[in-house]
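quick one, 241 residues, struct below
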Amino acid sequence: MFHLTYEFKLKPTTRQIEIFEDWLEQCRRVYNYALAERKHWFGSRSCQINACSIRSEFIISAETKRPTYASQCKSLTTARANIPALSAVAVHVLQQTLKRLEKAFVSMWEQKHGFPRFKKAGNMRSFAFPQLGVDPVQNQAVKLPKIGLVKFHQSRPIPDGATIKQARVVKRVSGWYVMLTLQWDVSVPDLMPHGEGIGIDVGLTNFIATSNGLLVKRQKFFIDAERKRKHCCNKVSVAKK
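---
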């Protein structure tokens, strides 16, 4: 089974661009709020018990559990009921933003990455749809939840039998793009090594030298091109106007 990612350039309308920009801003605010909640919890547990200052340290109840992805998703549900700007965004998109923050903390613990940073205005560049409806691509347009059909330039066809599992909308300098993750149920045969092993060495005198005595001479692309350039220049210099 293959998982492929196809990237296409979107052709959104003015209204759809406004929605994209608003959703990126809402995702940034959710990310920063969730990060601040976690940072405050860690800050309240980082000071020494005999040197904790009431004025300069955070004070959070000892019974308060560490914020996690599950607990912050529950808080997000409550916030969407009270904040119209959040309720306008698909809930799965905001949950994916919280999952991105969770992955950042896992990378900090397991891969020794730095502490996650707050996102400045304009730094949030993408949001993801983990679930799409049935047959989301129709006539060179992708159907996004709560947004509708968005046209895109289909530079290559989607393989037959491939299922579109999720989509990510990305903002770049050159425009808006959609990255479609495809699940392709194709059985790949396992090839067993056979034949004789050959050692290959890349050098300067010979471009390739193999263990069975094959020598491939170094290609002189630049020298040949320079010789051709000089020949053309000589023809131009003696040509009559």
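Strands lie at 2-10, 126-129, 141-144, 148-153, 162-172, 175-184, 200-202, 206-210, 215-217.
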